[in-house]
Amino acid sequence: GKEGRFRETLLGKRVDYSGRSVIVVGPSLSLHRCGLPREIAIELFQTFVIRGLIRQHLASNIGVAKSQIREKEPIVWEILQEVMQGHPVLLNRAPTLHRLGIQAFQPVLVEGRAICLHPLVCKGFNADFDGDQMAVHVPLSLEAQVEARLLMFSHMNLLSPAIGDPISVPTQDMLM
């Protein structure tokens, strides 16, 4: 099993600005967008939301801002939307065997606890919707965000880097 001492305490690592959840189909999303659950999004972007609340004079200090987030005040979701508009996220499905195993997306808030993906981007991740999980990471530096937008956005990776064949092609259930 997966309960050994090494696996539990020594091999596991915590990574800031990251999360993990099951993926579900989001056919109404654009290829370059992913649906991020509110619960995960507020955790990932908390420091940016706090900064936004303080900058717009909606909170006087970090403690007040954290309290507003804890209480899930409506203004928090508005600030979160603003923050997310300018911030790509990286989605990764282990094992990452080639460069299409990690791609950048523009996040949008969704209800529930699962990450939503357009079905056409799944082939690059070798993912399907039978319980697969994906990790989400937030690139922090401006340089990392620019690199994610230019090189890693899913709509920029429509062809296989190895052989040049199309990656995003409809399959059986999409054609029905």
From TrEMBL:
Domain of life, source organism: Eukaryota
Q: What does this protein do?
A: DNA-dependent RNA polymerase catalyzes the transcription of DNA into RNA using the four ribonucleoside triphosphates as substrates.
The record places domain RNA polymerase N-terminal at 1-176
Q: What is this protein called?
A: DNA-directed RNA polymerase
Q: Which Enzyme Commission numbers does its entry carry?
A: 2.7.7.6
* Reaction(s) this enzyme catalyzes, per UniProt: RNA(n) + a ribonucleoside 5'-triphosphate = RNA(n+1) + diphosphate
Q: Which GO terms describe its cellular component?
A: DNA-directed RNA polymerase complex
Q: Which organism is it from?
A: Ipomoea marabensis
Q: Where are the transmembrane segments?
A: none
